[in-house]
Amino acid sequence: MSNYIAIIDDEPDILELVSLNLIKSGFRAKGFSEVESFYRSLRTETPDLIVLDLMMPDVDGFEVCKYLKNHETCSLIPIIMLTAKTEETDKVLGLELGADDYVTKPFSPRELVARVKAVLRRQGRIEPETKKLIVNDTLTIDLEKYEVTVDGKKIDLTSTEFRILQLLASKKGRIQSREQILSFLWGDEKYVIDRTIDVHIRHLREKLGNAATVIKNVRGLGYKVEDIDKG
């Protein structure tokens, strides 16, 4: 599963340029010309990284950054600020608000893609070519063989259980709502209620045994995967 990158910029040419170059590099990319439409998209899918233009007409980019960093479900999303502003104070403010990198216009698409990869690598997030998700010393997910092992022992999971674990592990430390999990599993063709996810999670935990503690239930919000505390 490739990383999903959201691009927020009011210039259609920039959106197309950045999206095409990210897609060519193996990412999934979606452009947003308005901040509000991006906010609405968060209800169904959380991006692995955001490329954010500071000079948006509807909401200031600094405010977007502040909003994301103050919300639990979005606070860990890395942000690369993209702007024509070159003043050092703007760069410092963006970084102080939680941005991970800063690219000024005009820019090289290849450089931006390299920055995206570097930030994802620093964040420990899965990259497109990754064949295994190593959650910790105990739990490993082999995406190529479609296998999960706990302490080296293969665990038999259903397809749905595997995909839920894959989603949570690929977004390690970030909460996924039941609605987001349903959308990942079945897209728009959802014929089940969100509480079905709780049943799948319960069965998944039972099968994972000692490794089940990596799956955390965040009351009222959803689920996430975290490392087992090794003390």
Produce a short descriptive summary.
By secondary structure, the protein is an alpha/beta fold. Helices cover 37% and strands 20% of the residues.
Characteristics:
2 domains; 231 residues; five-stranded parallel sheet; Arc Repressor Mutant, subunit A; Rossmann fold; 20% strand; single chain; alpha/beta; 37% helix
The assigned CATH architecture of the largest domain is 3-Layer(aba) Sandwich
Instruction: Work out the helicity level.
Output: 25-40%
Q: Order of SSEs, N→C? A: EHEHEHEHEHEEEEHHHEE
Contiguous low-pLDDT stretches (5 residues minimum) are: none
Number of DSSP helices? 8
Q: Examine the coordinates and then state which fold CATH places here, giving the name of the CATH topology of the largest domain.
A: Rossmann fold
Helix/strand/pairing category? alpha/beta
CATH class type of the largest domain: Alpha Beta
Strand order of the largest sheet: 2-1-3-4-5
CATH homologous superfamily placement of the largest domain: Response regulator
Radius of gyration: 18 Å
Please give the largest β-sheet: 5 strands, parallel
Number of domains: 2
First-to-last CA distance = 32 Å
Strand content: 15-25%
Given the C-alpha coordinates, what overall shape results? Answer: elongated
Mean pLDDT: 83
Question: What's the number of extended β-strand segments?
Answer: 11
